[in-house]
């Protein structure tokens, strides 16, 4: 049973991957290299002297992600892939909503077989998904969705009509 780390080539992700490999976990990394170069994967291998599976996939590519899940036994997902530059998020907000909330949603969807798993989000901006037998609190989920949409609508966006 492997642990899937999204954004595992990144700053926090790669350190986490080193710790997971050193602790003896089987590891799978997904990263689209939008904010890092592939050398960080070599560093993870050099530091730990251990190997792992790696996929260059954009999390918005649902088919690609589905293949990763169907070809591997994944027991847990640690989600680090996201966009995080504050200045940039102000100038291109919709891209940031998609690149951070959108990718998280796809990762969560893919990770949870809703009939038997319960999503357990940890602190922002990353999330840890664990299997649980608890039923989701639907009221709380609906409130959160409304809150997300409200924030989204309040985002000032310039639309050029020409
Ligand atoms: O859609 C996406 C978006 C991003 N990524 C990947 O996700 C990883 C995210 O890692 P970052 O290094 O960009 O972000 P971190 O949150 O890990 O680290 C950032 O925050 C840290 C503090 O929290 C430090 O400031 C650090 O320098 C800064 O990069 C990157 O490899 C990026 O390529 C994807 O795979 N898919």
Give a description of the structure.
45% of the residues lie in helices and 15% in strands. Strand 2, helix 2 and strand 3 form a beta-alpha-beta unit. It is built from 6 helices and 5 strands; from the N terminus they run E-H-E-H-E-H-E-H-H-E-H. About 8% of the residues have low confidence. With 162 residues, the chain is an alpha/beta fold. Strands 3-2-1-4-5 form a 5-stranded mixed beta sheet, sandwiched between helices. The protein has one domain: 3-Layer(aba) Sandwich (Rossmann fold). It binds galactose-uridine-5'-diphosphate (GDU). The site of galactose-uridine-5'-diphosphate (GDU) has 21 residues, from helix 1 and helix 5.
Give a nutshell description of this structure.
With 162 residues, this protein is an alpha/beta fold.
Q: Fraction of residues in helices?
A: 40-55%
This entry's quaternary arrangement is single chain
Mass-distribution shape = globular
String of helices and strands: EHEHEHEHHEH
User: DSSP strand (E) fraction?
Assistant: 5-15%
Overall pLDDT: 79
CATH architecture classification = 3-Layer(aba) Sandwich
Distance between the termini: 53 Å
Sheet with the most strands: spatial strand order: 3-2-1-4-5
């Amino acid at each position: 049973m492997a642990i899937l780390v999204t954004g595992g080539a990144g700053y926090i992700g790669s350190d986490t991957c080193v710790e997971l490999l050193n602790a003896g976990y089987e590891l799978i990394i997904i990263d689209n290299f939008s904010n890092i170069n592939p050398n960080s994967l070599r560093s993870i291998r050099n530091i730990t002297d251990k190997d792992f599976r790696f996929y260059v996939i954009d999390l918005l590519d649902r088919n690609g992600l589905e293949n990763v899940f169907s070809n591997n036994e994944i027991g847990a997902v640690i989600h680090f892939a996201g966009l995080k530059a504050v200045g940039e998020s102000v100038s291109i907000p919709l891209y940031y909503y998609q690149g951070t909330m959108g990718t998280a949603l796809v990762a969560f969807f893919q990770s949870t077989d809703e009939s038997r798993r319960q999503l357990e989000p940890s602190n922002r901006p990353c999330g840890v998904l664990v299997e649980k037998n608890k039923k989701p609190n639907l009221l709380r989920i609906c409130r959160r969705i409304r809150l997300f949409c409200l924030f989204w609508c309040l985002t000032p966006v310039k639309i050029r009509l020409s």
